[in-house]
């Protein structure tokens, strides 16, 4: 019975971890996804433009 007591906590923790990952994956996106994607795209474009401006000045 000691082996059963030793295995229960990791199995329970693994089940909760899997459930947490599933919730995180399912909640990605939604109504704000397009807005967040646009903000990231704008930031990347600004970074690329800044890098291009500094390399062309040199």
The residue-averaged pLDDT reads 87
Spatial gap, N to C terminus:
73 Å
Question: Which H/E pattern describes the elements?
Answer: HH
- Please report the number of helical segments: 2
Number of strands: 0
Share of helix, binned: over 70%
Which spans have pLDDT < 50 for at least 5 consecutive residues?
none
Strand fraction equals under 5%
The helix-and-strand class reads mainly alpha
How is the main sheet built? none
Q: What does the radius of gyration come to? A: 23 Å
From the spread of the alpha carbons, the general shape counts as elongated
Summarize the structure in words.
The protein is mainly alpha-helical. It has helices spanning 2-27, 33-57. The chain is elongated, with a radius of gyration of 23 Å.
Index terms:
58 residues, mainly alpha
Brief summary of the model shown:
With 58 residues, the protein is mainly α. It is built from two helices and no strands.
What topology does this entry show?
Layout: H1 2-27, H2 33-57
């Amino acid at each position: 019975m000691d082996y059963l007591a030793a295995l229960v906590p990791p199995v329970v923790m693994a089940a909760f971890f899997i459930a947490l990952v599933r919730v995180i994956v399912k909640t990605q996106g939604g109504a704000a996804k397009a807005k967040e994607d646009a903000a990231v795209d704008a930031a990347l474009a600004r970074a690329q433009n800044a890098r291009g401006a500094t390399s062309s000045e040199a």
